[in-house]
Amino acid sequence: MILDVRHLRLVAAVVDTGSVTAAARVLHLSQPALSHQLRDVEERLGAELFQRQGRRMVLTGPGKRVLEAARKVVSEVDAAEAEISRLTQQSQGLLRLATECYTAYHWLPSVLRRFSAKHPGVEVRIAVDATRRPVEALLAGELDLGIVSEPIRHRRLAGAPLFEDELMAVMAPDHPLAKKRVLHAEDFAREHVLLYSIPLTESTLFQQVLLPAGVTPARLSRVELTEAIVEMAKAGLGVAVLARWAVAPELARGTLAAVRVTKQGLRRHWHAAWPRTVRPAPYLTAFVELLAKAGPPMR
What we know:
Elements: H1 5-17, H2 20-26, H3 31-45, E1 50-53, E2 56-59, H4 61-88, E3 93-99, H5 104-118, E4 122-126, H6 134-139, E5 145-148, E6 157-171, E7 182-183, E8 192-195, H7 204-213, E9 219-222, H8 226-234, E10 239-243, H9 248-253, E11 257-261, E12 266-275, H10 282-294
Parallel strand pairs: 3-4, 3-5, 7-11, 8-9, 8-10
Antiparallel strand pairs: 1-2, 5-12, 6-10, 6-11, 6-12
């Protein structure tokens, strides 16, 4: 068999979104990975599925036939998975969740859509007020699930690893630091650093890099919106530290530059957490498994 479901989903996503870049975001792949898969299936079939006309992807005759099959097969597979899920798992309930990082709300909706398709009877409620304090909210009984960037060590909480990502220093392309391959603590000493929050105990950059080295930036600013941080960095008004996937579109367009922080990289290991005293509902376990599989886009 040459074609499988992932190939069909790929073709449908390119048609539905209009470009390889947008399709990669929908499928949680990097653009090079998606392009490689597309070339691979075209080589296997011995036929081009798309004609590249500038930025547009236009279906060829063979491509139209594959799309026709994709519409039928993917729809049937999704329906079968949803039906099996309804038959084998508890399908009614409320799932209250929060994450300790605001940028997670940029990729979380795509996970929620996939989850809701399989568990339509489960209401997912995002507790934005618990952002940055999910562990506290879990212990207070305000949440059913928290997404945190450290292993779970509290005896009243259970947890499972999800994925890891890397924080990068981001700045305007013409910023002097953009020329470096790696940044160290001393590189931040003369900079205006843009942070989500102050106190500094909540900053990964400070806890893992700057404070151990005894370095304090020349200026600190609290900016709570990712979009505002990105725009300020693009304008050359400061340096920020963000997950690479959070600024992937800007990096692709060349409006931002990203530099690794320390030779080892500033990595976060994300975990799901829930109250240990409560036996997790099947749909909570299913949501955690989906998070671990999907994770943030372009990770």
